[in-house]
Each structure stands twice: as structure tokens, then as C-alpha cells.
Design goal:
This protein is α+β, with helices and mostly antiparallel strands. The chain is built from 31 helices and 51 strands.
């Protein structure tokens, strides 16, 4: 890498740069000679004193030469060659200075070093004649708190004094004499002090003569003039801004407003920019005019310039800017400070430079002596001069100078155009329409930006020529995009002005001004033909800047030839050159397009021109030659087609229609269709065929339209094809695309705006549709209609709120699952069809605090409640569970209230009417006829809680006095108690059968699987629908803010694999199905998961709150059994190989261990006592999934129903548990041989004492307590079985012999364990197992064990302690 770098630098002759030539003053002829003893290091800056000098090299080292009396040894006092200042090694010096007999240097971190003669304190050291080595000067601002070291930018040295310019633009002085500018007479001053006379002024540069000082400061506004306003009159932007950087402040007044204060008339465009650290140095990014500006010569250049700088634009507007080579250097990055006699030396040196020799010879002057080369710097001492020279190897330096010179001249010309043409034009009155004025202002603004960029670049190049001159650091190369963009912007604005006829409109108001300045115009525009019209000259003048791009390309190419072809520099220069050339050609084409478009507007009918003419619109082709006609057009109709870069226009006699290209599709008609030369044009609301006169015309138009559409879609019509990212032109634009369109014809969509995806003229994919009245749809479209998942908002002006729907759509209508929030506050969640609520749904009305809060969940048909549903009237504290029709309760139903009333029977038009049963909380029962809510009317029977009953006729409202005509019966005292609850057994006969409930929920699930009804469909189709549902849902979730967890994603992925079963059905296959169902039911995105989720929601809605009524227990149990039956039907449909309910699956392998039967001692045969999982049952397969979700409301009903008997049981449990273990075992009649004698507690064996409590059979007790932590009957039965085994283990451990239990022995022990387990709701547990356990288990081992537990429960209630 290094060798390659070295070869490339050698190729551009780096060894021949920064050569030091020196000669004596007054000698003639002038004979500059190389500095004796100086090697080949490139010198960036030199400074001369009376008898000595210092050199600064490109790597930041400082060398001294001449007479150095402050040095110690005689060899060092008059060295034969420059000697390195070792004290500065390791520091990176950026600028040096010399006084008469002392020297100074500034490092990149802002520290000043001084050395040499110090008799007057000029080295800032007290009581010392000489300072032999560079010594750091401590400069601290005493006014700052805390005390901070001041960073220095520049030094200037006289004979007895030194000045330093700080980063905050203040001057610090030390030494002797009034030239210090300090308020003191005590000399020497050895501690640097601030020059207070200039406090508050921005100092740009300092210089010293032997006994005088000079400071260049930023101008203050003239007192005679009006004060400069803070903001621009035209655009209200701040005129002067201050940016506080980390290590310097940029004060900028580069605001450019075409009608306000312009760049060159700013009082001072003093962008004070400093270069302190080579690593962080960038060119200051100028505001407004200079966005992304020249990031100047980066680190490589920073190290070479080694100077802090002041960037100055003279306050005297144009004159000094034109003479950029004059006394004040304009700089954008880091100019080297000019020295006092620069003007004279510059003139003198022109005669030494071979560059100037040519210029002088043109004027007939003879060149002065030897040609040194290109002089980059010059400095003068008392008796000698020094010049830094660059040799022009392979024309490299000449090319750089050519670039800098032409750029300065170009800037001068642009400044002239701006000040002498553009500004006077803008100040004219009656310039025409607002659009014209705005466009001219835009041109002026872009022109000013370009002018400013060129000015900055010219100054930057001057600075660059003082440095190392590495090609890769050229701003035009490194930041080419800034130049390319600025030229493109300017070209766009001037072509827009041209298209709108700006030059013609200017003719009248500007004629006087132009006539007066005709010569100036011709001179500036370089037009020599006197017959050229003024407007054409003006046109040429405004397009003049574009030519500059060719010059850039040419110079960069010249520079490239100075390098080897394989080098990266060559490649970079070559690429940049082609970029500039490409842009120049591209902008040339843009100008021709604009002129072609202008010509067209001149011939086009006036009224249409006004509506169609836009600044950025360009003509591509038009059919005035009748090459294109409309198919089936009338005989006398006129159809004119005009293709612009943004639209296709169909013009007729006096009307025209504009078709935006982004939503236009063109395709050739096939020859079979009879349209040999036909083009089919499709737009969102129109479709027509164009017939061309020839196949060539057809091809031309098709290609033009396709390219125009493609360009419009890319949105890059005005961007040049530069950079590696320029894409290849597509043959034809995509059929599917994103675009925005406002409908004008379609009655449903009139004036609505659609922004989103399209396919062949219709919205298709994701998009947003907005209507003028505030309606908005955001979501998926298909063939022009809302289809898929979407969100819809409709404002309700009366309520000042909006209706809001989120859910699924089909063919433009709400269809499928969705949530509709009404402006009234109601919320509906459920199924829709044809924009109506249809299927299962939940409607919430009002809030708990509102006047009529209620909730309905159930079936809907055509926007009305119909079928089974549950209505919770929160205000009245009533819940209705029954049938509906046309939004009213109609048919069988059940009502429960918060006061414990229970009614089941017939309803008609929302009222209890017909036969019914009414139960009150105290078990009073009425069976008979009703005529209204809670109103008895007709024949019936009223039964009291004690069994007495009245038969007869009843009338009146329950709870407020009932008239009875009938007979009172007192049942016989000897009649069995068993007959009493017969009435309770009748409950449920008038309720809705469990299988009729929630049919809509199951129907929806079947429909999702692609079946018309239960079991009516193809299995493969059902699996396809499941896969589609999962994929769609995943996509939806990807777009939604809720991110799926990793486990959910894995579950979804595993559900996409269908369990395959080949061969005979086995336990393993059954297990696969069981695992699949667990995953499916855990995922609401799966149809089965959605079904389970909905069933859980409706179940909780029914049996929670007011629905937690003990009378509803049997209904709740029946409902669960119905769920199991219907879900099992679905599962068997999806897995046809699954055997039917109650079938036995043969074991594929023998059981690993043979376990003895618990009570009989026989070998356990599975056919006699099969375990769940081997016999296929709906409860065995589905209860583990369903019951845990339904458990809380169900168990609450069991607890309420068994409340009384559980209270008795619990009282006995508490009483009996007060006994120690031995006493309780004795009381319960447990045989002594089963009493544990010793217990193992924490590994220690302890004897059972009479006082020992809660220690015997502890493991069995703990095991049985787990019954409350399980959900399904099968799990609860396993806990009971485990408890029995734990008892056996305990007994075996104490007996040390095998034995067989008899029930007489076992029951008392188990009774002890049940008592000690202290299960609070044991009755509920027992009844739940009894109601929901698989029937085939009742006669097996687990069945017997369960019967034992049940017996214990009833036995405990009857136990009496003596």
C-alpha cells in the first residue's frame, strides 16, 4: 500500500514542491538561490527576521537558519544548514512567525511557543536575555471563571513585541513599547495581557512591523446609515446568525434573499473560520445559501496548510471581490495570514513566475531573469527575500493554478451578473404575475447560492495552493455532489422560468434597462453578434453558468493524466470528470426540453395554456400531426393527445382532461383483438384505446408513455444520471405501484383521495382512502374495493365524535371479524356481513356510570339480535339467557337477578309470557302462567320452603302482593323427604337446550374451515384454510405494533405443519393430535384457538356477576359437556382417523411395569381398568385445554350450590382436627397395626407421642391437598390415586410385610387423611369430579377410590365426637 501511495505521489512530483529560494535585497540581476544545506522536505511556510529565519514543513516540524545568537554552541549560532527545533518535536505546528531577533510557533492544540532574544520580554519570559529553546507561553483569561487557558490561532512578531490572536478573536500582547496597545507604562510586559482597546470587536488578523502593530477587524455598520434590520424584509429570516461551536464561533450574515440584502452587499461576509486541529478540521457549513458546504481540505490538507485563518469578504461589495488576487484573500477554510508588504512583493514576484511570464509577454514586456516555477508564498526580511516554489511536473501545478484562476474569474463574472443585471431586474416594477416574480426570485436565489459556492471554492483553492496540493483533497472532487446539486438546482429554476415564458414577460418592463446596458449584456454573455435580440442575450447569459461544468471536467481530466492509470487518484479524477461532463450534457438536454415546451405553449390555445402550464411540466410528445386518434371517436370530434413528464392530456374543442402518469397504464393491443396499431390506456376511472397511424408511431408513443410513467414513478426526472447508483432504464413501468390519486367521477369515491398500492388501474394492496367529509379508510384493497384487514373512521358531526371500525372487509363491505366503536359510546365486537352485524357478537352499551349500561353477547342476523344470546342489564341487575328474534326476547329463556330470583320459561316481545318456573332465594317455587315480567297470571302451584304448597289461580306481581284462588296442601309428615326436591329436578326443561346455545360461534368456526355446515366439507380444504388464516394473521401482526414473542412465533410455525398419520391409529398418533390441539387452542390466530377463546368469553359473560347463581349450576355443566361434544366433532373432522367417542386404542407396546391392583391384588389388566388416554373421549382430549379457562366461574357455582352442606362439613373438620394424631386415629377406628410408631422428620427417626399432631401420614395428606390445585377430573382422580399409594407406602414401611387392603381397613385411614388435609371446598370438588369424569372410569380402580373420597365427605358431616 505504501509503495503504491509513494509511486502515485512521485507521479505528481511531490518532491519538487515547497522548494526554498532566497536572495538578497537590492541585488541586480535578481538571482534567487536554493537555501544552503536544506534537504528535500516540503516547506509550507517560512518567516524571515533580520538575520535569521524559520521554516515549517509539511509534517509540522520547525527548522531555524541564519544567525542564532541565543543558541549555546558556536556551531549552532551560525549553522551551515537549517537545524531542527527539538523542543517542538512531538508537537504538530500549524503556523510560525519571526520578529527581528526572535521567533514563535503555534501548535494544533492552540499553544504558542517563543524563543530567541528576550531583552524586551518579547518571548514572555522575565529577567532572561535569551530563550535558547522554544518555550510554551502561558496565556490565561483572568476574567473567565474558572481560569481557562486561551487557545491561540496566530502570532505576529516585531522587534521588541509579540501579538497573539486567540480563538475568541481577541488580541494578547507582551514585550515592550506603546505598539503593544496596552494601558500600561511598566515595561517589559512578560505576562501576556489582553488588548482592551479592541474588546468587543471581532479581530480577523494581526501583523507587526518592527515598532508598530496592525489589526484587521470586522466592520461595524456605518453610523450615518440606517441601522441594519435584524430580519429580512422579504422572508423574515435572521440576517445575521451566530453559531457557537466547541472551539470557535461562526458569525454569518450570508442570508440570501433575492429581494432583500444580497450576498455581495452584506456589510461583511465574515465567516470567521478557524483551523485548529487537523483531525477535526472541516469547512464551516454555511447557513441557508451554503447547505452541506465545502467540507474543506480535510486532514491531509489541514496538515499542510498549518495556518489559522480569517475568511474575509471585503465590505466594499464587488470591487475587491473581482480582484481576488488583490490584497485581501477570500478564503473558505484556512487562508494563511497576509504579511505587511504582500502587495509589493506580489507585484515583484509576478516577474519571477513562469505563469506570469506568459501573461506579461502577451503585453509585449520582456520576461525578467530566471524562471523559478510556480511561487506559492513569499516573505521578506530586513535584507533578504524568500520564496517557496513548486515545479510544474507533468503540468500538474499548472492545472491546479488554471482551475483556481478560472474559478476566480468565473466568480467575478457571476458577481457582475448578479450585481449589474439580476439585482436591477428584481428591483423593476410591474414585472408581471406573481408566479413570474416568484420564479425570477427562485432563479436569483439559486444563482446567489451558486455564486456564493463558486466564491467560497475560489478562495478555498487559493488556500489549497498554499498547502501540500494533494489531488484527492480537492473540494471539487471530495464534495462533487454539492457542486452537481447546486448546478442542477440552478438549471431547474432557470428552465422553469423559461417554460413559463419568463424572458418574454420580462421584455416589456425590462426593455429600457436592457437597452441602456446592451454592451454590458453582450460582454457578460460573450455574444458577439450585434443582431441578436436582447432577450436571447439575456437567455444566453442566464444559462452561462452551466458551461462551467465542461471546464471542471476538462481540468480534472488533465489532473488525472498526471497519475498512473492504475492509481486510485487517477480513477477518482477520471470518475469525477465524467460525472461533471454527464451533468453538463444532461442539463443541456433539459434546456432543449424547456425550449421545446415553450415553443409548444406558444401554439397551444390560450385558455387551456393557463390551466395546464406549470413551471416543472415538460412536453415529451403530442399528436397535432394526427398520428394518434381515439378509437370510436365521432366523425367531427377533435382529439388531441399531449404527453407531458407528469401527465397525459386529452384535449378536445374547449375541454381537456389530465391523466396523471403515476396512475396511468399503457399496453399494446394484441393483433387478435383487431387493434394492429392500438394502445390501451387504463386510468383509475377511464379506459380508452388510442389508434396510431403507423406501427412506428405506436412504438414511439408506447415507449414515450412507458418511460414517462417510469420516470414519474421514480420521481427523479430532474436528477442527473451521475454516481454509481444510477439505475438502468426499465423497458416498461411496473403494473403494481404506489401512487396518489383523487377520484372525480365514481359516485362512491367522488373527490376522495387514495394513496397506496395500485394494480392495473385499481387500488390493490395497502392504502389510505380519504373523503372530503372526513371519512377515512386505511387498510387493504383488492380490485379497487376495500378487501382484507382495514380501519374505517366516519365523523359524527352531531356528537362531535366519530364512528370507528377496525376489522375485516370483503368486496368493499365490512365482512368477517371486526370491532365497531360508535360515536354514541357503544362498542360492538364480532362478525359482520354486508356492512351489518351478522353472526356472533358482543355489544357494550354505555359505561357503568352512564344511564343505561348493558352488555349483550350472542347471535345477530342482519343487524338484529336473533338466536341465542345473553343480555346483562347492569342497571336493573338482571341477566337474561335465552332466545331472541328481531332484537327482542322471544322463546325460551332464563332470567336471574342480583336478589337471587330465578325464572325460566317463555318470553314474548321482551316479556315473561306463558308457562314458567320462578324460584326465590329461600326456595319458594312458583310453577305456572305469567303475563308480564315477574307478574303471575293464571293457573299455577306455589310451593313453600317447608314443602307446603298451594294449587289454584294466581294474579299479581311477585314481591308486591299476589291474589290467590286455590287450595292449600300440607304434605303428610310421614312422606319421604326424598320427594321434596322433585321440583328442582324439573329446572332446565324450559331453558334453552345446551346444544342450541352459541350455534353462531361454532358455525363461524366451520365456515372458517370452508364448510357450509358441521362436517359438510373437504378435509384438505379445511387445512388449506387454516394455513391461510395463520399466514394472514402473522402478516397482520407483523404490521401491528404488538410484536409477537419468540415462543408465539415458534408456535405459529409449528402449527403450519399438519400432523400426518399413515397406518393403524396408535397411542403415539393420539398423543400428536393432543399436542397439536394444545398449541392450536393456545393461539387465537388458529380457528380452533379463536373458537375456544370465544367460548371462554361467552361462558364467563354468562356465569359471572349476576350469573353466579346456584340454580344455574346444572346449566353450566350441561354447557361444558355440549362444548366438548361439538369441539370433538370439529377435531374428528380435521383428523378423520381419530376413533369415535369411547373407542379403545390398542397399545403399540406392552406396559413397561406390571402394577398390582390396589384392592384385589390381581395383575392390573387395562381392559378392566383403562386409563384416560387409551380410551378416546372428548373430555379426556379436550377438558385439559378447556376446563382451566372455565374453572373460576364453574367452581364458584359449585361452591354456591354446596354452601350449606360444606359449612356443616367444615365445622366438623375444624372440630376433629383439634385432636392429636393418636387420639384421632383411635376415634376413627383405625386398626393399631396401621398406626405409625416412629416418624422420619428431616432424616431423623422420632417416636410418635400421644401429643404428636399433624405428623402421621403427612405425605399422603400433602398429596391430597393438591386436589385443589388441579382443574380436570382426570387430574383430580390421579391425585386421589396417588394419595392411596402414599398411604400404602407409609403402612408398608411400618409393617415390613406385604399385605392387601380391605375396604374396612382402608376407609378409616383414608378418612383420617381427608380430615387432616383440611380441604375447604371438598364438596364442590367431589361434585365437579362426579359431573365431569369419564363414565368408563366409574367402575375402574380410580372410580372406587373416588367413591371412597365421596363416602369420607358424607361421613365427616355425620361424625359426632363423644
Amino acid at each position: 500500500m505504501d509503495s503504491k501511495k509513494r509511486s502515485s505521489t512521485e507521479a505528481e512530483g511531490s518532491k519538487e514542491r515547497g522548494l526554498v529560494h532566497i536572495w538578497q535585497a537590492g541585488s541586480f540581476p535578481i538571482t534567487p538561490e536554493r537555501l544552503p544545506g536544506w534537504g528535500g522536505k516540503t516547506v509550507l511556510q517560512a518567516a524571515l527576521g533580520v538575520k535569521h529565519g524559520v521554516l515549517l514543513t509539511e509534517d509540522g516540524e520547525v527548522y531555524s537558519f541564519g544567525t542564532l545568537p541565543w543558541r549555546s554552541g558556536p556551531v549552532e549560532i551560525c549553522p551551515s544548514s537549517p537545524i531542527l527545533e527539538n523542543a517542538l518535536v512531538g508537537q504538530y505546528v500549524i503556523t510560525v512567525a519571526t520578529g527581528s531577533f526572535h521567533s514563535g510557533a503555534v501548535t494544533d492544540n492552540g499553544v504558542a511557543y517563543m524563543w530567541g532574544e528576550n531583552s524586551a520580554g518579547q518571548c514572555a519570559v522575565a529577567n532572561q536575555q535569551y530563550v535558547p529553546e522554544p518555550n510554551p507561553v502561558s496565556i490565561a483569561d483572568s476574567e473567565a471563571s474558572p481560569l481557562l487557558a486561551v487557545r491561540i490561532l496566530q502570532l505576529a512578531c516585531g522587534e521588541e513585541h509579540t501579538l497573539a490572536l486567540s480563538i475568541s478573536r481577541e488580541i494578547w500582547a507582551w514585550g515592550t513599547g506603546c505598539q503593544l496597545g496596552l494601558i500600561t507604562t511598566a515595561f517589559p510586559v512578560t505576562k501576556p495581557q489582553k488588548v482592551e482597546h479592541l474588546a468587543g470587536r471581532v479581530v480577523l488578523q494581526v501583523a507587526c512591523g518592527a515598532f508598530h502593530s496592525l489589526a484587521l477587524v470586522q466592520c461595524l455598520p456605518s453610523q450615518d446609515l440606517k441601522p441594519v434590520p435584524e430580519r429580512c424584509n422579504q422572508c423574515s429570516q435572521l440576517l445575521i446568525t451566530m453559531t457557537d461551536k466547541e472551539d470557535h464561533v461562526i458569525i454569518s450574515d450570508s442570508h440570501c434573499c433575492p429581494l432583500g440584502v444580497t450576498l455581495t452587499e452584506s456589510q461583511a461576509e465574515n465567516h470567521a473560520s478557524t483551523a485548529l486541529s487537523p483531525s477535526t478540521e472541516t469547512l464551516d457549513r454555511q447557513e441557508e445559501v451554503f447547505e452541506n458546504t465545502l467540507v474543506a481540505n480535510d486532514q491531509s490538507v489541514a496538515t499542510e496548510l498549518n495556518a489559522v485563518s480569517a475568511q474575509i469578504t471585503s465590505s466594499d461589495a464587488m470591487s475587491s471581490q473581482q480582484n481576488v488576487m488583490g490584497t485581501t484573500e477570500i478564503s473558505s477554510a484556512r487562508n494563511i495570514p497576509s504579511y505587511p508588504d504582500t502587495q509589493a512583493v506580489n507585484e515583484y514576484l509576478r516577474k519571477l513566475s513562469d505563469h506570469s511570464v506568459r501573461e506579461d509577454s502577451e503585453h509585449g514586456e520582456k520576461p525578467v531573469p530566471s524562471q523559478l516555477g510556480y511561487i506559492s508564498r513569499v516573505t521578506a526580511g530586513k535584507d533578504s527575500y524568500l520564496a517557496l516554489v513548486d515545479k510544474n511536473i507533468m503540468g500538474y501545478i499548472a492545472s491546479l493554478h488554471e482551475l483556481a484562476t478560472t474559478e476566480r474569474r468565473f466568480y467575478s463574472k457571476l458577481s457582475d451578473i448578479k450585481s449589474q443585471i439580476l439585482r436591477p431586474l428584481l428591483s423593476l416594477e410591474n414585472l408581471g404575475t406573481t408566479t413570474t416574480v416568484q420564479l425570477l426570485q427562485e432563479v436569483a436565489s439559486r444563482f446567489s447560492k451558486l455564486c456564493y459556492l463558486i466564491g467560497q471554492h475560489g478562495a478555498s483553492l487559493s488556500s489549497f495552493l498554499h498547502g501540500v496540493k494533494e489531488a484527492r483533497s480537492l473540494v471539487i472532487l471530495k464534495h462533487s455532489s454539492l457542486f452537481l446539486d447546486s448546478y442542477t438546482e440552478y438549471c431547474t429554476s432557470i428552465t422553469n422560468f423559461l417554460v413559463m415564458g419568463g424572458f418574454q414577460l420580462l421584455a416589456k418592463p425590462a426593455i429600457d434597462f436592457l437597452n441602456k446596458n446592451q454592451e454590458l449584456l453582450q460582454d457578460l454573455s460573450e455574444v458577439n453578434d450585434e443582431n441578436t435580440q436582447l432577450m436571447e442575450i439575456l437567455n444566453t447569459l442566464f444559462f452561462l453558468p452551466i458551461r462551467r461544468l465542461h471546464n471542471y471536467a476538462k481540468v480534472l481530466l488533465k489532473l488525472a493524466t498526471c497519475f498512473e492509470v492504475a492509481s486510485p487518484e487517477y480513477q477518482k479524477l477520471q470518475d469525477s470528470s465524467s460525472c461533471y461532463e454527464c451533468l453538463a450534457l444532461h442539463l443541456g438536454r433539459k434546456r432543449k426540453e424547456a425550449e421545446y415546451t415553450l415553443g409548444f405553449w406558444k401554439t397551444f390555445p390560450g385558455k387551456m395554456t393557463d390551466s395546464l402550464r406549470k413551471p416543472e411540466r415538460r412536453l415529451l410528445c403530442e399528436s397535432s400531426n394526427r398520428a394518434l386518434s381515439l378509437q370510436h371517436a365521432g366523425r367531427f370530434s377533435v382529439n388531441w393527445f399531449i404527453l407531458f413528464n407528469d401527465a397525459l392530456v386529452h384535449a378536445q374543442f374547449s375541454t381537456h382532461h389530465v391523466f396523471p402518469l403515476a396512475t396511468l397504464w399503457a399496453e399494446p393491443l394484441s393483433e387478435e383483438a383487431g387493434g394492429v396499431n392500438g394502445l390501451k390506456i387504463t386510468t383509475p376511472e377511464e379506459q380508452f384505446t388510442l389508434i396510431s397511424s403507423t406501427p412506428q408511431e405506436k412504438t414511439k408513443w408506447l415507449r414515450a408513455i412507458s418511460q414517462a410513467v417510469d420516470q414519474a414513478l421514480r420521481g427523479m426526472s430532474d436528477l442527473p444520471p451521475y454516481g454509481s447508483g444510477s439505475s438502468v432504464q426499465r423497458q416498461e413501468p411496473p403494473i403494481s405501484r404506489s401512487a396518489k390519486y383523487t377520484f372525480y367521477k365514481d359516485p362512491r369515491l367522488k373527490d376522495a383521495t387514495y394513496d397506496g398500492r395500485w394494480l392495473s388501474g385499481k387500488p390493490h394492496g395497502r392504502g389510505v382512502l380519504k373523503w372530503p367529509d372526513g371519512k377515512m379508510y386505511s387498510g387493504m384493497f383488492r380490485n379497487g374495493l376495500e378487501d382484507g384487514y382495514g380501519e374505517y373512521r366516519i365523523p359524527n358531526k352531531a356528537m362531535n365524535k366519530e364512528d370507528h371500525y377496525v376489522g375485516h372487509w370483503k368486496e368493499g363491505k365490512m365482512c368477517g371479524q371486526g370491532v365497531y366503536s360508535y360515536a354514541s359510546g357503544e362498542v360492538f365486537e364480532g362478525c359482520f356481513q354486508d356492512n351489518m352485524r351478522h353472526g356472533h357478537g358482543l355489544l357494550r352499551s354505555g359505561k357503568l356510570t352512564s344511564s343505561s349500561p348493558s352488555m349483550f353477547i350472542g347471535q345477530w342476523v342482519m343487524d338484529k339480535k336473533a338466536g341465542y344470546g345473553v343480555f346483562d342489564d347492569i342497571t336493573r341487575g338482571e341477566k337474561y339467557m335465552g332466545m331472541w328474534q328481531d332484537d327482542v326476547c322471544q322463546g325460551n329463556g332464563v332470567v336471574v337477578t342480583q336478589f337471587g330470583l330465578y325464572y325460566e320459561g317463555n318470553f314474548h316481545l321482551n316479556k315473561m309470557m306463558g308457562n314458567g318456573v320462578l324460584l326465590s332465594e329461600d326456595d319458594t317455587i312458583y310453577e305456572g302462567e305469567f303475563s308480564d315480567d315477574w307478574t303471575l297470571s293464571g293457573k299455577g302451584t306455589l310451593t313453600m320452603p317447608n314443602g307446603d304448597y298451594i294449587e289454584g289461580y294466581f294474579s299479581g306481581e311477585w314481591g308486591s302482593g299476589i291474589k290467590i284462588t286455590g287450595t292449600y296442601f300440607k304434605p303428610s309428615l310421614y312422606e319421604s323427604d326424598k320427594d321434596r326436591p322433585k321440583v328442582f329436578r324439573k329446572l332446565g326443561n324450559l331453558a334453552v337446550p345446551a346444544d342450541e346455545k352459541w350455534k353462531a360461534v361454532f358455525d363461524e368456526c366451520w365456515r372458517q374451515l370452508g364448510c357450509e355446515g358441521p362436517g359438510q366439507g373437504e378435509v384438505w380444504k379445511a387445512w388449506d384454510n387454516i394455513a391461510v388464516a395463520l399466514t394472514t394473521s402473522r402478516r397482520q401482526h407483523r404490521d401491528s405494533p404488538e410484536i409477537l414473542s419468540r415462543s408465539q412465533t415458534q408456535t405459529l410455525e409449528s402449527l403450519e405443519f399438519i400432523p400426518q398419520h399413515v397406518g393403524a391409529f396408535s397411542v403415539e398418533k393420539y398423543d400428536d393430535i393432543r399436542k397439536y390441539l394444545i398449541k392450536a387452542c393456545d393461539t387465537p390466530l388458529h380457528p380452533l384457538g379463536r373458537l375456544v377463546e370465544t367460548l371462554v368469553a361467552v361462558y364467563r359473560m354468562t356465569y359471572v356477576g349476576v350469573g353466579a347463581n346456584r340454580r344455574l349450576l346444572q346449566e353450566a355443566v350441561k354447557e361444558i359437556k355440549s362444548y366438548l361434544k361439538r369441539i370433538f366433532q370439529l377435531v374428528r373432522f380435521l383428523f378423520p382417523e381419530l376413533p369415535e367417542e369411547g373407542s379403545t386404542i390398542p397399545l403399540s407396546a406392552p406396559l413397561p411395569t406390571e402394577r398390582k391392583s390396589f384392592c384385589t391384588g390381581k395383575s392390573d389388566s387395562r381392559s378392566e381398568s383403562p386409563e384416560p388416554g387409551y380410551v378416546v373421549t372428548s373430555s379426556g382430549l379436550l377438558l385439559p385445554v378447556l376446563l382451566p379457562r372455565l374453572y373460576p366461574p364453574l367452581f364458584m357455582l359449585y361452591a354456591l350450590d354446596n354452601d350449606r352442606e360444606e359449612d356443616i362439613y367444615w365445622e366438623c373438620v375444624l372440630r376433629l382436627n383439634k385432636q392429636p394424631d393418636i387420639a384421632l386415629l383411635g376415634f376413627l377406628g383405625v386398626q393399631r397395626k396401621f398406626w405409625p410408631a416412629t416418624l422420619s422428620i428431616l432424616g431423623e427417626s422420632k417416636k410418635v407421642l400421644p401429643t404428636t399432631k399433624d405428623a402421621c401420614f403427612a405425605s399422603a395428606v400433602e398429596c391430597l391437598q393438591q386436589i385443589s390445585t388441579t382443574f380436570t377430573p382426570s387430574d383430580k382422580l390421579k391425585v386421589i390415586q396417588q394419595t392411596f399409594e402414599e398411604i400404602s407406602q407409609s403402612v408398608l414401611a411400618s409393617l415390613h410385610e406385604d399385605f392387601l387392603w380391605s375396604m374396612d381397613d382402608l376407609f378409616p385411614v383414608f378418612l383420617y387423611v381427608v380430615l387432616r388435609a383440611r380441604i375447604r371446598n371438598l364438596g364442590s370438588e367431589v361434585h365437579l369430579i362426579e359431573d365431569l369424569m369419564d363414565p368408563y372410569l366409574q367402575h375402574g380402580e380410580q372410580g372406587i377410590m373416588f367413591t371412597t373420597l365421596k363416602a369420607c365427605y358424607y361421613q365427616i358431616q355425620r361424625e359426632k365426637l363423644n
